[in-house]
Amino acid sequence: MNTTSTSALDTMGSQIIQSSENFAFVTAMVSTIQIGILGLLVIFIESPLQPVSISGIRKTVMKPANLLLLLLIISNFICIGSNYLSRVVMNRNISKAYFAVSTAGLTMFEILTILYTWNRGRHILQSVIPNFVPCVRPIIVFNTLLLITGNCLEITIIFSNDFASSAQNCSSAIQVCNFVLMCGFDVFIAACFGIYLRTLKTMKHASDAPRFKIISSFGIATSFCMVLWFASMSTRNWVQFSNGIGPTLLDYTSNLMPLGYTSLQLAMKWTLHEDRKREIERKKETVMRAKQVVNELASMSNDKSQKDEVHFTIPAPLPVG
Description:
By secondary structure, this protein is mainly α. It contains 8 helices and no strands. It has helices at residues 2-46, 54-61, 64-88, 92-128, 133-159, 165-199, 209-236, 249-311. The longest helix is centred in the C-terminal third of the chain and has 63 residues, at 249-311. The chain is elongated and about 100 Å long. It starts with a helix and ends in a 10-residue tail after the last helix.
């Protein structure tokens, strides 16, 4: 019986390592592609509406949205890759170090999702709930501090051989609070985006309406991704692998959903660029039409002036005799 139990544990352990390797491989491959697409968008598509220059590229790269998106991709890769390494190294202390790095990467990704959502959606929130917007910043700060506190406590528990059970309970309580706050924040943001889309037809002053419509539509989709991701991670902590069946759907969701989130953000970025390009073309066409009208009016005015000069010309006197 002991031999059978040991064999089952070995099988589950090898399945966990294999699934972690698969997740790390997929994350590495997709993250590399995403960074390449982001670089293409920033350097060769966004900047060259004018001739490419070092200063122009630097200014575009340093935009908060671009930096946050790049850090989102990198932090997710650090989280998944370090988690895989923590399972395959033989040294226990090195394994703990990799797991701590994975935990830090996860916390960094969670914080960056909050900041990225705020960066993209704050103007829409100002339009939908202007009186409540000043209260959002303290909530973001509190949520960020709570995430960092939970991460520090979890890393301390990782490296502690005999840590009090009260610390474990405190860490679990903080994780539950983080789950509630993160899900609540995303549901709140998605609701604001939905309200904006419903009232968009009555907003006649919105010159940025097409851009905000794109942000709201993608924002609802990404908020759904995040809620599903948080729910799967929280549920997975209470669910173990079943004997011989390998990783569950929760493991796929919790490991791969961040890739879906960053992919949606890249798709939104591309859509916003295309909308901006169409807007520039529309402005150029408007300017060209205005020039044509001015030229036509000027031509008509010149023709009328010439006719008036002919009409009012005094005839020369006839010769006498």
